[in-house]
């Protein structure tokens, strides 16, 4: 989704804005632009395509002002051309926007009837027109925004400046995130903190329909009616280095390699390592009260999107197995529109790496309206979902920049495994030995992941063979089924190839017809309770000419004999297998996409944080 940066202060706005936009590239975009004060007017430079195109254009440009805004656009209304790129300028007003204005048709008609000259196909430009009309009347940018805000429907975060007020910057939002960064005699606004970490660690998170009014170095947060709001200033402990590539070719590869550490970090608060016991640590509700809540919860409902949804599926299997609590699982975009029956005594969970996914957030709000307790699992602390939940768990992966989720997924699996263990324990369903064994199994995962990372070289070498397949079917049963779906998602989003994740037992109900020598079958067949059944499915696929790439536990000779390619994973407890089989699938998709020459960190058409529905 679009990225937003605004700056008012003594530094060179061009540098600050470009630096910030680079850090927001991961969000996905197709054009970019800036408007920076120069000789009393905001000079606008825009370019379609990559940020480097804008950077080239900006090389020869100088600016003598200290106020500017910049934007990376992920097209919604209108093609990704320079003409549609932001900022939009109308009568001295320059504006950038992330999101969608739903009532734009009505506003457009009204503006056209008044003779407005509309120069782009975007909904965003219309907001610039509305503000330009109001600022003419009020001669005050903040007042103009207060007049326009009630007219807008949809999801938006917007920053606006005005040539006549070189010390003012106004921003507001309803939906997509916006943060204010506070520095010495300087103020920043951005779509997320990563854009600003090189300049400040102090942030204010805006809530919906709040307005930030910046005048010089003074910052005021106001309600949509202009009443002052007191906000907390939050200090972030992520360092700028955490969002650098640190010598890796791509963020995604760096993030894959971080998993031994990120899984350990995810587990750390929830495990008493010396006793090999689980002790889930939540924020918003202390451990004892949370355990009481688990004890009396009759039903659990998990809602998420994409990779987070697949992690939720694993949680469903684990919680039903270990805690014997029924779990409903939904894709957020379905949940919110399907009149779900939510009974009291249901604990409701959202899983979201970004904490900003629009559908997941809407589902959370729906469940909250129905009076349910909301448990969230996020990576980004202080994200909207994190702030709106009652009880909070964290992935603790550190910033994930690659659009394809990797380390956040394994961290999510780790935390959800602890949740299932804790739940089984408070319900008296786990023996001490089982608890100790499972905790030990989880604690062993980080070092086992180091071993699995050796598949990096393997997939690098075989990527040119893999490119001959026309599609990939990922098969697994039980705990391997969500991992199969996640593996297929990685292949689709990175290598743009047809890939499907299937419950292996479903093969003969349709997908078997797809199998021939050009369809690779990725079979997840660790030694667990589903092993024999999965093995039979593998034989069925092989008998129909499928080429098998199997992942198994240790040197499994039977599996080896049946497969074109066999990947031994460390022998592990069944609880650890999903974590171990995830990494080879990430590496396979990564290397095949690189071999095909695709942009691994920013796959086409995708955005890291999906802040519109
Ligand atoms: O930030 P979230 O976890 O809510 O994001 C949900 C999905 O958009 C996300 O998991 C997406 O499927 C991944 N980028 C896929 O790798």
Explain the layout of strands and helices.
Layout: E1 3-8, H1 13-23, E2 31-38, E3 41-48, H2 51-59, E4 67-73, E5 88-90, E6 93-101, H3 104-113, H4 124-138, H5 141-148, E7 154-162, E8 168-174, E9 179-183, E10 186-190, E11 202-205, E12 210-215, E13 218-222, E14 234-235, H6 251-257, H7 259-267, E15 271-272, E16 277-278, H8 287-296, E17 299-304, H9 306-322, E18 327-331, H10 332-335, E19 346-352, H11 358-369, E20 373-378, H12 384-388, E21 391-394, H13 407-426, H14 432-452, H15 455-466, E22 471-476, H16 480-495, E23 498-503, E24 519-525, H17 531-543, E25 547-553, H18 557-562, E26 565-569, H19 577-595
Parallel strand pairs: 17-18, 17-19, 19-20, 20-21, 22-23, 22-24, 24-25, 25-26
Antiparallel strand pairs: 1-4, 1-10, 2-3, 2-4, 5-6, 6-7, 7-8, 8-12, 9-10, 9-11, 11-14, 12-13, 15-16
Helix pairs in contact: 3-4, 4-5, 7-13, 7-14, 9-13, 9-16, 13-14, 14-19, 15-19, 16-19
Bound molecules: 5-amino-5-deoxy-1-O-phosphono-D-mannitol.
